[in-house]
């Protein structure tokens, strides 16, 4: 009983420690870990139980996104150095995927095991960084405002002494009153000084040696010098400090805008993710109908549906690209065709354009370089905004003018309307995310922020140009570099050996129905289920040549399905591919990279699905 009480007491003492503590035996198995160790490692907390292998713990920390693979190598190296008799491994500082900074130390025990201690130093580092920033700011202010001293008789104002810094700042005049830009300020300074014999940082305007006024802070003390009342004062030039404050204010504003843009990106990513599944159904069925139709009128209608759906798909992917700042799909763009396509889309929408569109596009313009879908969306936003302003405030015309800049490196496009224009105050914030001048319910503040993000991502510029009437947006975009002519290659598709069974796992019935219909037309036998748990039970039979699963589903989801099969039946896990609408989050991208399995991003098209299945069948030789 005494031993049990001692162990209980030791356990309570360990749990009370402010730092994380984990004890491993000579076989690198966990003996005991305190509560703080689990709190510092929340992503693997449920695994931290006696008997857990050190190597498995590191593997799971990487797999679950707690630490990077580089940190895992460093931790393994620390363990290997425990047997070094010269000295123990130094502490390791690492940054978790959640942005926390931890310090880990490792010490060998007398029994051949080791003890790991883990401390959270995030707040300490943040304080250090804050202190460094404050010191840097103070140094910059002091360097911009050198100290100076002047001594003058209070009776006649004659200057007795000045430092070189004061001479550089204020000149060599004999009367200290000449340092003030106005007699009124001099009188106010003396009035404030006399009652108590001191003035602290009184705001006045002083004069430079060339007579230019500048703002400064005047501090003074009234002293007795050789039997005379003398004022000892300094004037600190704050003009540079004022400029510095303005710069810092602008930097804070840019940070604030970046945070708003990040929030906007998350919003757009959520909207795009929700649209992916229904768009997959529309795009997929339209393409399938196009392949099967023979009547010209029906084909024309289907092509219109498919074109509109694919345009929506491009917008969704633009939103995702905007949210995750992924690389652009760069290609040569015929601007004249792109702008006409954008206008046609707006004309065919539910609220057709009311303004007259005039195009002034120079002949023989070279192609732009960029993402055609995103560039088209930029000009759709600008034209739609101009049209709405004209509809509500008067006007009748929108002019789009494009010219190649001298030098042949860029193109300048103006979108000009004769509407009510934009106020000077609103013009300063027109590209801010979520800022809108429209009535509640009629504007989101997303459109122009999106335009700004896209144009900047293309290496261009967008600005609101002052105009006497209406609004004038000027956009510059880079031109495409000329490419050598190559003969077009005929598309070659190899037929799929369409035999065997395919398992489709997706909680969206319409999506699974679409995939099943596409593959059945290729001759496959297709089973579909709506949960990963049911899919796992079927997959264990080993009777499926290909398993297509969504990632995000209730329950274990596609990730849990893959990890379970990878542990139990690796040969079946090699037949899995993912069909998902979420590739934006770092966790999902890390998992896809670690899993090293093919994946198809929603919205899906029949051709892409067939290509995926063909690739998998060839890779698995089944």
TrEMBL record:
<dbReference type="InterPro" id="IPR036890">
    <property type="entry name" value="HATPase_C_sf"/>
</dbReference>
<keyword id="KW-0547">Nucleotide-binding</keyword>
<keyword id="KW-0597">Phosphoprotein</keyword>
<dbReference type="InterPro" id="IPR036097">
    <property type="entry name" value="HisK_dim/P_sf"/>
</dbReference>
<keyword id="KW-0902">Two-component regulatory system</keyword>
<dbReference type="GO" id="GO:0005524">
    <property type="term" value="F:ATP binding"/>
</dbReference>
<dbReference type="Pfam" id="PF02518">
    <property type="entry name" value="HATPase_c"/>
</dbReference>
<feature type="domain" description="Response regulatory">
    <location>
        <begin position="501"/>
        <end position="617"/>
    </location>
</feature>
<keyword id="KW-0418">Kinase</keyword>
<dbReference type="InterPro" id="IPR003594">
    <property type="entry name" value="HATPase_dom"/>
</dbReference>
<dbReference type="InterPro" id="IPR004358">
    <property type="entry name" value="Sig_transdc_His_kin-like_C"/>
</dbReference>
<keyword id="KW-0808">Transferase</keyword>
<dbReference type="GO" id="GO:0000155">
    <property type="term" value="F:phosphorelay sensor kinase activity"/>
</dbReference>
<feature type="modified residue" description="4-aspartylphosphate">
    <location>
        <position position="550"/>
    </location>
</feature>
<dbReference type="InterPro" id="IPR035965">
    <property type="entry name" value="PAS-like_dom_sf"/>
</dbReference>
<dbReference type="InterPro" id="IPR011006">
    <property type="entry name" value="CheY-like_superfamily"/>
</dbReference>
<dbReference type="InterPro" id="IPR003661">
    <property type="entry name" value="HisK_dim/P_dom"/>
</dbReference>
<dbReference type="Pfam" id="PF12860">
    <property type="entry name" value="PAS_7"/>
</dbReference>
<dbReference type="InterPro" id="IPR005467">
    <property type="entry name" value="His_kinase_dom"/>
</dbReference>
<dbReference type="InterPro" id="IPR001789">
    <property type="entry name" value="Sig_transdc_resp-reg_receiver"/>
</dbReference>
<dbReference type="Pfam" id="PF00512">
    <property type="entry name" value="HisKA"/>
</dbReference>
<keyword id="KW-0067">ATP-binding</keyword>
<dbReference type="Pfam" id="PF00072">
    <property type="entry name" value="Response_reg"/>
</dbReference>
<protein>
    <recommendedName>
        <fullName>histidine kinase</fullName>
        <ecNumber>2.7.13.3</ecNumber>
    </recommendedName>
</protein>
<feature type="domain" description="Histidine kinase">
    <location>
        <begin position="270"/>
        <end position="481"/>
    </location>
</feature>
């Amino acid at each position: 009983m005494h031993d049990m009480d001692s162990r209980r007491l030791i356990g309570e003492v360990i749990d009370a420690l402010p730092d994380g503590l984990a004890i491993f035996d000579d076989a690198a198995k966990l003996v005991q870990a305190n509560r703080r160790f689990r709190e510092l490692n929340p992503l693997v907390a449920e695994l931290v139980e006696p008997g857990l292998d050190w190597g498995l713990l590191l593997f799971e920390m990487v797999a679950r996104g707690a630490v990077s693979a580089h940190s895992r190598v460093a931790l393994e190296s620390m363990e290997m150095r425990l047997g070094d008799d010269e000295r123990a491994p130094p502490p390791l500082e690492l940054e978790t995927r959640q942005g926390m900074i931890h310090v880990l130390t490792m010490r060998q025990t007398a029994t051949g095991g080791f003890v790991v201690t883990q401390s959270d130093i995030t707040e300490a580092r943040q304080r250090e960084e804050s202190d460094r920033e404050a010191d840097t700011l103070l140094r910059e202010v002091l360097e911009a405002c050198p100290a100076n001293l002047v001594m003058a008789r209070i009776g006649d104002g004659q200057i007795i002494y000045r430092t070189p810094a004061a001479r550089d700042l204020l000149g060599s005049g004999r009367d200290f009153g000449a340092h003030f830009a106005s007699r009124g300020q001099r009188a106010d300074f003396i009035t404030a000084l006399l009652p108590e014999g001191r003035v602290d940082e009184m705001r006045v305007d002083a004069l430079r040696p060339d007579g230019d006024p500048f703002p400064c802070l005047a501090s003074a003390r009234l002293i007795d010098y050789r039997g005379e009342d003398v004022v000892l004062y300094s004037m600190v030039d704050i003009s540079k400090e004022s400029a510095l404050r303005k710069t810092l204010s602008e930097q804070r504003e840019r940070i604030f805008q970046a945070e708003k843009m990040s929030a906007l990106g998350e919003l757009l990513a959520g909207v795009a993710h929700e649209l992916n599944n229904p768009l997959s159904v529309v795009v997929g069925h339209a393409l399938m109908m196009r392949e099967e139709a023979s009547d010209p009128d029906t084909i024309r209608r289907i092509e219109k549906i498919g074109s509109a759906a694919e345009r929506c798909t491009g917008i969704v992917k633009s939103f995702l690209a905007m949210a995750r700042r992924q690389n652009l799909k760069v290609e040569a763009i015929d601007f004249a065709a792109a702008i006409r396509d954008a206008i046609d889309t707006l004309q065919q929408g539910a609220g057709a354009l009311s303004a007259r569109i005039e195009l002034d596009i120079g002949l023989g313009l070279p192609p732009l370089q960029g993402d055609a879908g995103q560039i088209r969306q930029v000009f759709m936003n600008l034209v739609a905004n101009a049209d709405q302003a004209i509809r509500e405030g008067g006007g009748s015309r929108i002019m789009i003018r494009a010219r190649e800049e001298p030098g042949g490196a860029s193109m300048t496009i103006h979108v000009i309307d004769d509407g009510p224009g934009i106020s000077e105050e609103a013009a300063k914030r027109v590209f801010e995310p979520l800022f809108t001048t429209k009535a509640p319910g009629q504007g989101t503040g997303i459109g122009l922020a999106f335009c700004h993000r896209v144009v900047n991502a293309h290496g261009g510029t967008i600005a609101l140009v002052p105009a006497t009437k209406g609004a004038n947006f000027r956009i510059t975009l880079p031109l495409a570099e000329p490419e050598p002519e190559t003969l077009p290659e005929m598309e070659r598709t190899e037929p799929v050996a369409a035999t065997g069974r395919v398992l489709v796992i997706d909680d969206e019935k319409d999506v699974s129905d679409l995939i099943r219909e596409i593959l059945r037309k290729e001759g496959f036998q297709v089973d579909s289920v709506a949960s990963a748990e049911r899919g796992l039970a079927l997959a264990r039979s080993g009777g499926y040549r290909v398993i297509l699963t969504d990632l995000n589903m209730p329950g274990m989801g596609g990730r849990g399905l893959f990890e379970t099969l990878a542990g139990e039946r690796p040969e079946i896990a090699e037949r899995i591919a993912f069909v998902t609408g979420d590739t934006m989050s770092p966790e999902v991208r890390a998992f896809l990279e670690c899993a090293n399995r093919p994946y198809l991003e929603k919205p899906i098209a029949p051709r892409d699905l067939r290509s995926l299945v063909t690739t998998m069948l060839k890779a698995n030789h089944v």
